[in-house]
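Dear colleagues,

For the upcoming journal club I promised to circulate an example of a predicted protein-ligand complex. I picked one with heme C because it came up in last month's discussion. The inputs are reproduced below in full, followed by the predicted structure.
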Amino acid sequence: MKLISGIAVLLLLASCGNNATDNNSTSASQDGSPNGEQLFKINCSQCHMANKDFVGPSLVGVESRWKDRQLLYAYVKNSQDVIQRDEYAKNLFLKFKQVPMLPFPNLTETEVDAIFKYCNDMGAASK
Ligand code: HEC
C-alpha cells in the first residue's frame, strides 16, 4: 500500500513539472518575465510596427496617449468594447478606416506591459 501511494505522489509531481514548463515555453524569457519581442511578433506585428504607423498606429509612447491605463488594457483585450464607451478609442477607430483590431482576451497586463516596453525600446533605438 505504501508503495502505491508513493508512485501516485511521484506521478503527481511529474505532471506538475510538465505544466510548469508548458506555461513558460511560449513567451517567457529565462528569468520568467514575459518576452515582449516574441509576444509582439506573434500577436501584433501583422498590423503594428513598433515605431511607425502601419495598419494600426505606432505603439511607441502609446501609454501616454491614454488617460486611463486600465482602459488601455481593456482595449487590448477587446477594442470593440472600449470603442463603444470611450471617445478617444472611437476616434482612433474612425481615423484608422474602421479596421477593427483583433481582441486578445488572454494576454495578461504584465504581457501587455512587456509588449509596450519592447516597442518603446525600438522607438528609442531608431531615434
Ligand atoms: C488585425 C490587426 C491588428 C492586430 C493583430 C493588432 N492590432 Fe492593435 N490596432 C489595430 C488598429 C487598426 C488600430 C487602430 C484603432 C482601430 O482601428 O480600432 C489599433 C490600435 C491599437 C492601440 C491603440 C493605439 C493608440 O494610438 O492609442 C493599441 C494600444 C494596440 N492597438 C495594441 C495592440 C497590441 C498590443 C497588439 C498585439 C497583442 C495589437 N494591437 C494587435 C490593429 C491591430
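Two points we might discuss: Residues 43-44, 46-48, 55-57, 59, 62, 65, 76, 79, 92-93, 96, 99-102, 104, 107, 112, 115 surround heme C (CB under 6 Å). The chain is about 60% helix and 0% strand.

See you all on Thursday,
B. R.
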